[in-house]
Amino acid sequence: MATQQTVVHLHQLCKEFVEGNQRRQVLSHVNGDFYRGEFAVLLGKSGSGKSTLLNLISGIESPSSGEVLVAGNSITAMKERQRTLFRRDHIGFVFQFFNLIPTLTVLENVTLPMELAGNGRSATQAAMNLLEQVGLADRRDTFPDKLSRGEQQRVAIARALVHDPMLVLADEPTGNLDEETGQRVLKLLLDLTRRQNKTLIMATHSAEVVPFADRVFRVHDGQLLTTAEAVPPLRPLQKPFIVPN
Which residue of 88, 90, 164, 227 shows the fewest CB atoms closer than 10 Å? Predict the structure, then answer.
C-alpha cells in the first residue's frame, strides 16, 4: 500500500477558555494526522469544538498546550506575523457565511488573496480560470449582494483556491444553504480540491457529507474520535515551507 504525505499533524492539543470565573476545556489532548489529497470530515454538534480545531490548525487561535504542524512547520511555534503570512500563502478558507467583501466585485474578491501576497500580475488570470470552473465568469463585475447564496459560496470557493493552497479548511460551508444548493456546492468544492490534490478538512454538524469523505472524525467531549480502519504508514513532506520572519 502506498505511503501518504502528512499535511497536518496534531500532538496533545488542548484548548480552554475562561468564562467568568470558570475554565472551560473545549479540546483535550487531541492527536491526529491529515494527509495530502484527502477529504476529512469533522462531525460534531454546535459548541463541540469543531471550529476551534480548525482555528488552531490555521493558527487563528493558539492552543493552551500541544502542537500543530502543517507541512512540517510548527504553527504553534510561530509568531503572530509568521502565522498570518503562512495562512495567506498556504491555507484556503471557506466559511458558512461566505465572508465576501461587499464593496468589491466578484473578480476583486477572488483576486484579493493573491494581491495581498504581492502576486497581483497573475491574480486576474488565476481568478478568471477559477470563476470559469465554478460557473461565474460572466458575473466577474457583479457585487456580492446581487448574487444568490449559492453563487456567493461558489465565489468564496474560488477565493479559497486562487492562491493554490495545499490545505483547505471549510467551516460549515453548506450550513447557510438549502439542501439542493448545498449538495451542488459540496460537490463543486470536492471536485476542485480532488482535481488539485489538496487536503480538505471540513467541520460540519451534518451527516449528509459523510458518504463523500475519505475519513470521518467526531469531535465529542473534547476528543477527536474516529472509526476509520488502519491508515498507511506516514511519510512526512520532504521539505517544510519557508516561513518569513
Answer: 227
